[in-house]
Predict the structure.
Amino acid sequence: MPRCVWLSLVLFVSFALLPSSAHAQASITGVVKDGSGGVLPGVTVEAASPALIEKVRSVVTDGTGQYRIENLRPGTYSVTFTLPGFATSKREGIELTGTFVATVNADMRVGALEETITVSGETPIVDVQSTTRQQVLSQELISALPSGRNAASMAGMLPAVTIANQDVGGLTGESGSAAGSVTVHGNSEVRTQVSGLSVASAQGSGSTGVGNISAYQEMAVDISGVSAEQKEGGVRMNLVPKEGGNNFAGSFYFGFANQSMQGDNFSDDLRNRGLSTPNTLKKYTDVNPSYGGPIKRDAVWFYATVRYNRATNFAPIFYNRNAGNPNVWTYDPDTSRAAAVNDGTFKGGNARVTWQATQKHKFAVAYDYQNNCQCPRSLTAELSPESNIRNHAFLSPKDMIFVDWSAPVTNRLLLEAGFVKHREHAFRPYQNIYFTNNPGAVRLNAVLEQSNNLTYRAANGDSTDTWNRTDLFRTAASYITGAHAFKVGFNLGFPRQTQQVYNIDSPMSFRFNNGIPNQLTLLATPYLRVTNSVDHGAFVQDRWTAGRLTLTGGLRYDYFHVSFPAATVGPGEFVPNRNISLAAASGVRWHDLEPRMGAVYDLFGKGKTALKVSLNKYLAYYALPNSGSDAGTFTTNMAPVARLVTSTNRSWNDTNRNFAPDCDLLNVVANGECGAMSNPDFGSTRPGVAYDPDTLTGWNKRDFNWQFSAGVQHELMPRVSIDAGYYRTWFGNFVVTDNRALAPSDFDRFAVTAPRDPRLPDGGGYQVTGLYNVRPDKFSVPADNFITYASKFGNQSRRWDGVDVSVNARPSGSLMLQAGTSTGRTTTDNCEIVDKLPELLLAPLALGEPNVLGVAPVTANTWVPASMCHQQSNFLTNFKFLGVYTVPRIDVQLSATVQSYPGPQIVANYVATNAIVAPGLGRNLSGGAANMTVNIVQPGTMYGERSNQAGLRLAKILRVSRVRTTASVDIYNLFNADAVLTQSNAFASWLRPQSVLNPRWAKVVLQVDF
């Protein structure tokens, strides 16, 4: 058994009589005093609620008169205090959500036991003990708001949370991309959990996995001060499952819309700016029944739900008339047809059985099945439908099995354990389904047009057929006294992946500039890659209350290891003689310690004003992503087969314009129309990358971030609070790839002149300095890429600073309001690094992803000038609002949401030809390259127009006996805004709109609760 597993088992046995809740839930705490103000030990405190299958949870006050009841499910509670010689005191109507710590104090007077004094009071709304910044979206709120029913989209309604792929009313669907880029305070480490267990697949980013929102009672979104129970520190979305109850109850949700139910925001201005067709709704359907109740009253409950969701949308691009024609090399939009369609279909079911086996032991088993077809997804203005086949993703089967156990052994000791088994098969077609009507056709080559960044004609790059499997275990114990909530626990994770990498179309693709070929790319596919990993952690944490001050301290240990079985790599089209046997290998073996610290001070001792400060260290999340993704640097990219050189570029001078490379493609040196391979090790047995041993094993090697927060939460009036805070996030353990075959002296440094254009700063015409080109005699030198820490070359930094302000109000049962802003900026710097490693200035990533310098949306294979090595964004502000009001007596419900985001960051990727480069460089570009793409706008200085969208729901509630029927109309993008969400950064088509907010549209909704 691996040493790490033994360590985890030892930790569990050692702490079995100690504390902890592995997935934190709400708590009730307080101090009990007598009439003179003296503390009362030995008081029995009972929390009762229909939310508890065991009905009542009880504890006893300690010697300081304090008590604490942990691990309470969301719901409304009554708290009863009893002590011989004193009258019983009772407090009712305590509403608990998420991990909120409700402070409920009691003053008891001398009297008979049979005398009960019921105290009425407002539910506490200020948490004066926890530093976690959390907002909770209950099922009631989710059902009332005009929003998409996607977990990430709903989290995006909170002020501090930003979603790059904006969802207008759920049009991305459950199979869409709204969950793709969720950030908070500069941190993109997002986790979706069910009862504290991650539901991300081994390959996933952590923001997906939940598709059946009716199966859950509430979603708690943590944005700061995440406890030691989690290693990541970004957005954490924890969903609490519904369990059923002693009464049979259920609901039925139906939503529908089609293209006749939308407006038109395709203005003349957008047409004149070059948008060929907007993104609009085609059809939306959502059917979601659910039902639960007792199998045996007070003992066994069940809850089950199924969902069908389909969202089809017209993409901002037309079909290509020339698709499938091997004799034509242009994209010709077929405007006689409707625009191309993104089509996402979700089918899923969820069933859960909860068993209160004894008064102390509770078990739950759940099964979740999902069938997703993203067929296709991600069609954009830069991706023609016939080239989007790689984004036809079928996820079937995708299922999860959950097992939970909890046992409040005594009124101080709580034990818990949980398990989830996650399986997912994600695959793409093995042939281009657009061309199946012509099975004898030759395979086509994809083309990337530099002038507008459009990919067309065929599938570009490799594709994958992937099996992901993950087993996650958690166990914990909690030991709770009145003053202390001591926790300890551990988790075991076993993510595994088997991935076949192949090509749908030809493994050779072309690059054109204004229709003229200048470069080709070869891929060495197919190959099989298998990755196994273990991801374990253990933590200890204590929350200690002394008077008005509550201190939280914790320490978390994490262990991460990756390994790869032996593999054989056979031949491919451009590697016909390849036959390589690769031995099993071990990847990283990391150990990390992360301290967590926080303090809360009840300023006036009345539970209405809390000063909060926290300082915590978190780790980056490591999944097993697709081949070539930078996120896989220390996981899938370490596989011996992935370290082989599986792609190479070569210049191409198609002098006879026959669109066929007239050269020997297998010959690594320049010949015929083709320049030398950019990496002559293509297809060979020599690995293309090596790792610094210092990055592979040891303590605190994993990339991390520290988060500091300081703020105040204050009750303005009953059930109305304001929360304001300063936040700072900074990152560490950056890695770089050093091509040891090249030194800085092997590059020639030069400048180019930006073109004249009134849209550029100062009208253009300025010098863009700090550009590099490798010397011709070094161009064909085999790369010796070495992954190591950036700190070995100098200082690299990245940080986010900002302020959040939010107001939460629920002045009555019929009115709820939330509003807030989040303002911050990102600063990055690696000037010391690029002076020594100029090759890093060539951005390897795709549009919209962070490059080595920061967060600029620089297209892949674009040079970022060294003069831009320091980047600082403007202060960017989000504004969010949501509100629900039910008009008394007439049962008409009005609800609204507002989301306002800053516009997209703008850069300008300028294709500088040899004629432009040569005067400053003093020669032509190396390797026979026809041009180089250069960013000529300092990132963080230019932004597009702000995006503002509002949603409105008008609903009528009908009540007949136990049946409540809500018929409503949701209106999204109420004011029909046409803000540009993405635009071209290719200078030849610069600022041309590529997608806009969907126009105003309406959805009819029927929800029946019974």
Notes: Residues 13-119 form a domain with the Immunoglobulin-like fold (CATH 2.60.40.1120). The CA atoms of residues 93 and 335 lie 61 Å apart.
